[in-house]
Amino acid sequence: MTGATLFGLAGAILAGCGVYGLLTAGGGLGRILGFNVLGGGVFLIFGAVARRGAAAGFHADPVPQALVITGIVVAFCATALALALLVRLREVEAGPAPDDGKRETER
User: Fold this and answer.
1) Which spans are transmembrane here (predicted)?
2) How many angstroms separate the CA atoms of 74 and 68, rounded?
3) If I label 71, which of 35, 57, 80, 103 is the partner at 20 to 30 A Cα–Cα?
């Protein structure tokens, strides 16, 4: 078993865990975490496939590595946005805080 195969299998297991978490999680935070685990698995599989091509004697292609790095950055930004929206949704569902009404009357 080569290193690329091991990384591919680890990525497949990680993607499977992410799909399971995405489908079975009840809350928004669980779904966001499941989606991130799924994304990590896909990035690992993609990196393993790119490495396997380089190990076969072909020239190393920098495009898959660049796509994985770009995908990690985009996934981080999307996670931050999703978490901010989740926090805002919880605030709206909880209603106005007691201090908010006081500030409105003082102005």
Assistant:
1) 6-25, 32-54, 66-87
2) 10
3) 57
Tokens 């297991």 sit on residue: 13
Q: Please list, residue by residue across 29-59, b when 16 or more beta carbons sit within 10 angstroms of its beta carbon and e when fewer do.
A: eebbbbbbbbbbbbbbbbbbebbbeeeeeee
Secondary structure (3-state) at 61: coil
Tokens of 94: 């909880």
Q: What distance in Å separates the CA atoms of residue 44 and residue 49, rounded to the nearest whole number?
A: 9
Total residues belonging to the chain: 107
